[in-house]
Design brief:
single chain; alpha/beta; Rossmann fold; six-stranded mixed β-sheet; 12 strands; EC 2.7.1.29
Length: 570
């Protein structure tokens, strides 16, 4: 039996409603019943009240659609089970006693729902209430007409919206019933799923092989009309629209080029939002190609089947009047708060920003000559390429085993860059150009960390190249790495080697410092620090998620930095 995060299996429908009401000041429970009502019932005096409902497990339907501009109340059953006659009747009485000018029941076409709502309607009429019922059947799955008719699925939510906007405007029960029935007749919905679902405490409702998807299924875990191999999203959407509009399909929907529709891309509960966005884009593109205008698109979870990893598409042909009702304001929490406007894949893009003023090319620095720069960089690159396997091996214990690849990518990028143009000799320009190369090509966090280091170091070297400037540059680079990377010395990262070298370089600030001695000391400190990371506990970076007992090797980032420093300073 699949795992569920419930308190008790028997109480899950009540607990879900209680949670919704607890978090929503606009909702109230009806005492003794699984009924949710608007908290401002007084506002419906003299207007038509709208009630809907059905089994639980379709959240946010139906209680998410209760609010000004949509439903007055809903009646919930247990998971995938119709609500009781007594609760439906209690809801009708509650709104009638609040002074409603008639009640419209919006019911999905299932035998249980029709029976229970129908029985309550008959009893309420016997008590003198003016009650009507609209049965919604929007499913396009079945190609031959069955006696039971089309099932009511996600399109019902659009009916809640149209009816709610009309009731809010003060329309009569007759008018609402007529307009809602006309809209319901022309719309259609079709579901597609990659998985079944399971009622809390039960096994999955049907089995689907790893490579299969199911077309035309309902919202109660029942299997569909066709099983097929899993298709890419765009092909799956095309298959759905073809089935929905196929004239030989008894439950098809007629779409003529040039007509306007409202599209609902509904998550059946367990699809990731990433996949839902892909399906939505494919649906818009596919409809556009057929010459259909998508006046509005709603994307989200509107009527689900527990955790089913699937999607349904609803199309409702609209005229200006219907569109106005869809756009009308509502306080119902599950209705999206969208800017009214058409959906299109041809939306104009914001033009890319122009790059800022170029870097000064002619900055004079009496830095080492270009040939010397080239020699040093070549040495750094060949060092990193030679170490690739060693660094990957070190990284396997603590990370994802790609530290060597990442550094080799950087080395190849620098070699490529030097082949395309001679590197600038001025230190600030050199470091800042290297930062650009690494940010573009190196990848990983190390690419950004080196980029931060070099960019900050370059700032300290603008217009200076004396020894103290290099000490300042080293400190500035480390400070930038710490500010954004979050590591500190002792956290077992590349920072440990850099920090040790920086401490040694500080003596460049004292007059008469012997440059070569200081550089040699810096390299030795860096190498010693890299070796010392072997005994440290990781405090930052990916390795910090691994228990320290498993990290017997030195940190690959620290080892790489020490090797780069040796290559530069030799």
């Amino acid at each position: 039996v699949p795992k569920k995060l419930v308190t008790t299996v028997s109480g899950c429908a009540d607990d879900a409603l209680a949670g919704l009401v607890a978090c929503n000041p606009g909702l109230r429970l009806l005492q003794g019943h699984r009924v949710v009502l608007r908290n401002d019932l007084a506002a419906i005096r003299g207007r038509v009240a709208l009630l809907s409902g059905g089994g639980s497990g379709h959240e946010p339907a139906h209680a998410g659609y209760v609010g000004k501009g949509m439903l007055t109340g809903v009646v919930a059953g247990a998971v995938f089970a119709s609500p009781s006659v007594g609760s439906v009747l209690a809801a009708i009485r509650a709104v009638t006693q609040a002074g409603a000018a008639g009640v419209l029941l919006i019911v999905k076409n299932y035998t249980g729902d029709r029976l229970n709502f129908g029985m309550a309607l008959e009893r309420a009429r016997a008590e003198g209430a003016d009650v009507r019922m609209v049965v919604v059947g929007d499913d396009c799955a079945f190609t031959t007409p069955g006696k039971a008719g089309r099932r009511g699925i996600c399109g019902t939510v659009l009916i809640h919206k149209v009816a709610g906007a009309l009731a809010e405007e003060g329309a009569s029960l007759d008018e609402i019933e007529k307009k809602v029935m006309a809209a319901a007749k022309v719309m259609g919905t079709l579901g597609l799923s990659l998985s079944p679902c399971s009622i809390p405490g039960s096994k999955p409702s049907f089995q689907l092989a790893e490579d299969e998807m199911e077309l035309g299924l309902g919202i109660h875990g029942e299997a569909g009309v066709r099983r097929m191999k899993v298709l890419p999203a765009d092909k799956a959407v095309e298959t759905m629209l073809k089935h929905m509009t196929d004239p030989s399909n008894a439950s098809h929907l007629s779409l003529t080029p040039g007509s306007s529709v409202v599209l609902v891309v509904n998550n059946l509960g367990g699809l990731s939002c990433l996949e839902l966005g892909i399906v939505a884009g494919a649906a818009v593109r596919c409809l556009e190609n057929r010459g259909i205008c998508i006046a509005r698109a709603l994307v989200g979870s509107f009527m689900t089947a527990l955790e089913m990893a699937g999607v349904s598409l609803t199309l409702m042909p609209v005229d200006e009047e219907l569109l106005r009702l869809i756009d009308a304001k509502t306080m119902a929490m599950a209705w999206p708060n969208l800017l009214a406007g058409p959906a299109t894949t041809r939306r104009e893009e914001v033009p890319a920003p122009v790059e800022g003023p170029g870097k000064p090319q002619d900055e004079t620095g009496t830095g080492p000559g270009t040939a010397r720069v080239q020699r040093v960089l070549e040495r750094v690159c060949s060092t990193l390429l030679d170490m690739q396997d060693k660094l990957n091996e070190l990284d396997r214990g603590a990370g994802d085993g790609d530290c060597g690849h990442t550094h080799a990518r950087a080395a190849q990028a620098i070699q490529e860059w030097m082949r395309s143009r001679p590197p600038p000799a001025a230190p600030a320009q050199l470091l800042s150009s290297l930062a650009d190369v690494l940010l573009e090509q190196m990848g990983g966090s190390s690419g950004v960390l080196y980029g931060l280091f070099l960019t900050a170091a370059a700032r300290s070297l603008r217009g200076r190249s004396d020894s103290p400037a290099w000490a300042d540059a080293m400190d500035a680079g480390i400070e930038a790495m710490q500010r954004y990377g979050g590591a500190a010395p002792g956290d077992r990262t590349m920072l440990d080697s850099l920090f040790a070298a920086a401490q040694a370089l500080r003596s460049l600030r004292s007059p008469g410092a012997n440059l070569l001695q200081v550089l040699a000391a810096a390299v030795q400190s860096a190498e010693a620090a890299a070796e010392a990371t072997r005994h440290m506990e990781a405090g930052a970076g990916r390795a910090s998620y691994i228990r320290s007992s498993r990290l017997e090797q030195p940190d690959p980032g620290a080892v790489a930095v020490a090797a780069v420093l040796r290559a530069v300073l030799e």
